[in-house]
């Protein structure tokens, strides 16, 4: 064995830089990848030279790209497509091909080869998927049509980009293409997709079932198997003359839900996320910054501005144009365009592959990296403008499919609230005490028996139709975690929980994670009130609202004492929502309260 | 960027080989590492040449060693030491130094350099820690004194080996040592331990607290930070002239429980386990096999047999000899010796470092690898002999500290069982329904309010004193998972659960994972009986046992009808245990049953 030392200081420094870069940029609302690229440019060989591109960084980033592509594939959920497949397809096609065509001709006009033009074209065409949901939550867009179109659009756009990319890499190495070669290449590509789809749809599910039933059923086994399948798919892609990232992407698409059983998929996903997003992918993005030549600002400023401009204008206008047949209006089209304007992981990976294969030079590579940075910078700003514009015009369309109410915990208070909601909305309760479940069912409620922290149990409640979740068990932590699950896994927009500790002790980040609102002031009150309801010491009353007023202000003004518990707000159409201190009460609404009578 | 391709096929093949090797060897009861080494020898360059030692395999194994050492450090729990620190120390010292001295003089006598002698001596001295608990469970030794001594002994022995190793690597590169150099080296080592301990005890907890309170509190952040701290510690070790694995080991010792909060430590541990044990460490062990020269069986068979023989005899006899002052008897000493005879991860890592530094040659390296394989092969065989021997002589000492009973779920049946147990043992109940908790407390039981799937809640029950857990909620999955947690995290020896599905549907592997026994025949019965107890339709009766008989056979013979529910077995000292079909009833014992009276 030859003496071999990995440069540990350099790995530590790269990881620390990635972490700090990601942290700082997230503080101002941008995705971590941006900070990682920037810190790589600043601390790497291109500027300060603190960080080195060593062998171990090379290996880690190459494997990091593969794991990242698996993760991107795993994150794609074809169910997302269903709700907005037609407008999503329009947005994706317009947002991809318009900048694609503009990018191609610009490069060729500037004297680039057709193949480098195609690389740049793809890089300009893609849309970043990973950063979407964060921004959607921040801008409170989760339940709007825009959100569904953006998710479907980004998904289709990335898949499109990767399929076209799979064709291009095959031609990259030959300049003259005969009909015969074309046939060979096409059949190779078809064979790749045929084999990976067949293995993914038929072999992996059977392997998964076999392993789940055998004694080796533990999530580490599945972790190892995921890696084996991934590297196997990568090798298949290379055998078909394509880049290994395509294999990784296909592996990601098929691994989730096929190979491994539902009960381990969450912790597996977490472990995979930690390794890729928490370790290797940041190494890749920092090291991508190493190859950026900052002098392009001096030498090729014109081309840089042109490419960035075309990327932005092409994406937004292209999306809006192709979006017209959806009949959702050109303003919504522009909004979708601003939302899809970011370039992220896939763009940087494609640019890096182009540089590695010698298809694009360092100048073009640097321009593409800066283009990714600039376009991503525009997203929160432009998207917040356009959505506010739509909101003001009353054109922000909410998806109204969700109208169900899910209540966790059967107790006197929750049954009382359920009765109110049941007037207008379907209500489901959930509890893990069989006796209480029976009790709720006897009162005519749909009630699920099971542990609400188990995703499979939650899935029984048709969570895709739930608009409002109320966690009303005595255990605040259970309420919070169930809320987090419903928010994260099933995108339930309204999460309301009763907690046993004071709000300050729970911490903002926990609430933010589940997007939860706290019900009542403290759960001591809740237990008391439940007791009072059981012993018929409570009457129900309501107060009409005359002027728009914040809920907490209203409580102070009306002198609501401890003898009252405001629980619901009813609007003029009879729709209910839970009362909480941050709400805004409007004229015509009623606050429904419990009042102690003894 | 230079063109750079990682050989993906080779990575896939190495991982697949590691997986298959580990799988096959585990089927016959040995630790995965053995199969990984063997498959590396067979499929690698030493024999068939299917697998290659590429750059990426190099990087992955080097990082794999580091992550593995962190994991080994994280697994060390100083609480394990408390119960057997004195006998454990004796066993560790004897088991380490006797083979150490024998190994050193053998190598020097065979013409090796003193420094190579020291390397071999350490490799022979170490004890494998990772494989212990599995074997202890298989041989049903978990609650014996042997188990505690083995765990404490292996822990001390590994720490000892690494501390001595940290001294040796410093001297490895200089042959002549002056007093001045000696002082410099010693102060470097002291400085390393000083700095790492100071940072670990003071800085990391503060950093952890800061992060937990901040908004960046998520487990992926902690995963990244663990890696940064790890590589930082590795760099410190290298600055002090030691090998980076020592830094990784120290990082592991301090990271757990210091840097990150309890609530994320479980999923972090899991992610870390997946990456190290499920990905990189197997790559390392397979690749360690690549450097084995199988011709040593022809060329150096004598030395191979001598070293292996000394390792086995030295370890067993050395342990037994030094164990005498513990006054636990020489037979227990020999048993401990056979249990500590395995060599595992640490030995292979040390041998590989020695080979990499050129201190030992390929022949000695190969001998050390085969020694690790042979000694590990002896453990289950010899330990099962010696423990059976002790068992037959009645000298297998059980640790009697544990005598608590923990019952999950407050209901009529569990309260009835609790009353029986409470005659002789401390009983704790646990439930997440506050009303039921109050009810149990009113009846005089210690009862914890909370979610039993939360380790922090379980920790409140002093699980280290619990000998018996009964899961009696209506939710069989909750019972099973709580049992699994108590078994895995707190080593509770007796796990009994009531389940709602038929036993066949739960599957053996789930039961094995938690080492659980199923109570009663099905939970439908349990709910019925709870109902009957509430409505006073039940009387309690008991049946005396005359001859030794299997419990299920006894049930058939006595014609126990559905009107009876055997719940407990009472021995002649009045100690209770739960009744279950696989138990063996002895003369003088009584079966306590519920009988339906209406």
UniProtKB/TrEMBL annotation, chains A, B:
Annotated compartments: Membrane
Endpoints of the signal sequence: none
Every RCK N-terminal domain range: 405-518
Membrane spanning residue stretches: 6-25, 32-51, 57-74, 86-109, 115-135, 147-171, 183-204, 216-233, 239-259, 271-291, 303-324, 364-385
Taxonomic source organism: Maribellus luteus
Molecular function GO terms recorded: antiporter activity
Ranges for domain Cation/H+ exchanger transmembrane: 16-387
Top-level taxon of the source organism: Bacteria
Any Gene Ontology CC annotation: membrane
Membrane topology: Multi-pass membrane protein
One Pfam short name: TrkA_N
Keyword Transmembrane assigned: yes
Protein name: Sodium:proton exchanger
Keywords: Antiport, Ion transport, Membrane, Sodium, Sodium transport, Transmembrane, Transmembrane helix, Transport
GO-annotated biological processes: potassium ion transport; proton transmembrane transport; sodium ion transport
């Amino acid at each position: 064995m030859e003496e071999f030392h990995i440069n540990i200081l350099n790995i530590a420094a790269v990881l620390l830089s990635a972490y700090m870069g990601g942290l700082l940029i997230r503080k101002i609302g941008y995705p971590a990848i941006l900070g990682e690229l920037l810190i790589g440019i600043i601390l790497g060989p291109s500027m300060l030279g603190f960080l080195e591109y060593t062998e171990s960084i090379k290996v880690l980033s190459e494997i990091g790209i593969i794991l990242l592509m698996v993760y991107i594939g795993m994150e794609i959920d074809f169910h997302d497509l269903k709700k907005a497949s037609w407008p999503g397809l329009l947005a994706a096609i317009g947002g991809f091909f318009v900048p694609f065509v503009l990018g191609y001709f610009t490069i060729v006009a500037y004297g680039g080869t057709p193949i480098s033009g195609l690389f740049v074209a793809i890089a300009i065409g893609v849309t970043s998927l990973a950063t979407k949901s964060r921004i959607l939550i921040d801008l409170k867009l989760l339940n709007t049509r825009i959100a569904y179109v953006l998710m479907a659009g980004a998904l289709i756009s990335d898949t499109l980009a990767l399929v076209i990319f799979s064709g291009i890499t095959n031609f990259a190495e030959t300049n003259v293409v005969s009909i015969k070669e074309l046939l060979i290449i096409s059949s190779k590509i078809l064979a790749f997709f045929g084999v990976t789809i067949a293995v993914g749809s038929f072999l992996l599910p059977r392997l998964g079932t076999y392993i789940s039933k055998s004694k080796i059923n533990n999530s580490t086994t599945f972790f190892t198997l995921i890696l084996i399948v991934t590297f196997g798919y990568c090798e298949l892609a290379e055998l078909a003359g394509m880049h290994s990232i395509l294999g990784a992407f296909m592996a990601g698409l098929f691994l989730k839900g096929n190979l491994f059983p539902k009960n381990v998929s969450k912790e597996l996903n977490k472990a995979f996320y930690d390794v890729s997003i928490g370790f290797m992918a940041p190494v890749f993005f920092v090291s991508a910054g190493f190859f950026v030549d900052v002098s392009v600002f001096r030498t090729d400023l014109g081309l840089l501005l042109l490419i960035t401009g075309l990327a932005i204008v092409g994406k937004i206008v292209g999306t809006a144009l192709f979006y017209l047949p959806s009949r959702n209006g050109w303003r919504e089209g522009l909004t979708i365009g601003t939302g899809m304007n970011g370039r992220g992981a896939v763009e940087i990976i494609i640019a890096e592959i182009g540089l590695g294969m010698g298809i694009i030079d360092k100048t073009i590579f640097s321009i593409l990296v800066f283009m990714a940075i600039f376009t991503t910078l525009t997203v929160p700003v432009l998207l917040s403008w356009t959505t506010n514009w739509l909101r003001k015009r009353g054109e922000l369309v909410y998806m109204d499919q969700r109208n169900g109410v899910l209540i966790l915990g059967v107790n006197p208070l929750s049954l009382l609230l359920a009765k109110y909601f049941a007037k207008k909305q379907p209500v489901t309760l959930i509890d893990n005490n069989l006796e209480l479940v029976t009790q709720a069912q006897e009162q005519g409620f749909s009630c699920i028996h099971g542990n609400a922290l188990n995703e499979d149990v939650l899935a029984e409640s048709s969570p895709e139709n739930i608009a409002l979740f109320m966690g009303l068990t005595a255990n605040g932590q259970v309420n919070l975690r169930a809320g987090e699950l419903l928010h994260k896994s099933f995108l339930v927009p309204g999460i309301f929980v009763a907690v046993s500790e004071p709000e300050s002790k729970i911490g903002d980040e926990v609430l933010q994670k589940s997007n939860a609102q706290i019900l009542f002031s403290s759960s001591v009150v809740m237990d008391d009130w439940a007791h009072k309801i059981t012993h018929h010491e409570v009457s129900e009353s309501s107060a009409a609202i005359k002027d728009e007023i914040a809920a907490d202000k209203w409580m102070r003004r009306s002198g609501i004492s401890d003898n009252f518990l405001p629980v619901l707000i009813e609007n003029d159409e009879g729709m209910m929502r839970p009362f909480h201190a941050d709400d805004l009460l409007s004229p015509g609404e009623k606050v429904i309260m419990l009042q102690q009578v003894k």
